[in-house]
Amino acid sequence: FSPGLLVVAGSFAAFRLLNRGLERLVPPPPSARRNRWKWRNIWTSLAHSALPDAHSLSPRRFYLHPEMSNDLVGTHPPGAHSLVAVSVGYFIEDFVDMLCNQKLHQSWELLFHHSVVIICFGIAVLLHQYVGFALVALLVEINSIFLHLRQILLMANLVHTACYRLNSLVNLGTYVVFRMATLAWMSRWLFLNRHNVPPAAYAVGTAGMAIMTPMNIILFYRLLRSDFLK
Questions:
Q1: CA distance 196 to 85
Q2: Treating both helix axes as pointing N-terminal to C-terminal, what angle do 162-174 and 140-155 enclose, rounded to 10 degrees?
Q3: pLDDT in tens, 118-135
Q4: What is the DSSP code string of 27-45?
């Protein structure tokens, strides 16, 4: 039994409670009242995306702990294991929320994405290894802040505003830096360290990268087409 599972369970419960109370904290505008669960879901996701930044999960951590660049298997800074466990709790909560409130054909991509993340992060939590690798993966959440803001502005019918336009530019820029470049760096690290990673873990990591990379390329094209090419 891993104490990390308690953190996962507590995180799940906390994000579930937050989801239930968000409509009172952030009342949906008239344009979003037809899809109230989605409004709550996006704000919950935004709260999770802001967590890594609040815990200083940024390139600064890798500057303060340079040994992580060479060893993402057994090395991680204090509190990193709990942060990954909190993220696992969130992804499980979001998985359950979408499964209960959205049709499968509308959410299968995100459900598939969350399944991969839960498996990969879950291994790091249970084994207390690959936590550094999970931290690198969580860098994508910096972009997710602007990705979720974009959805909130869309639901609030604020597409034709300077705020939406500015967010679109920042969203695309952070997408390239913190999502595309991060996945490329992780794939490179995994390939270069394939002899130092057990076959089972290497297979899971390779499968995760093989799934995430095309999904993120497709999403990038959709964002580019929707916000800039129309």
A1: 24
A2: 160
A3: 999 999 999 888 888 888
A4: PPPGGGGGGHHHHHHHHHH
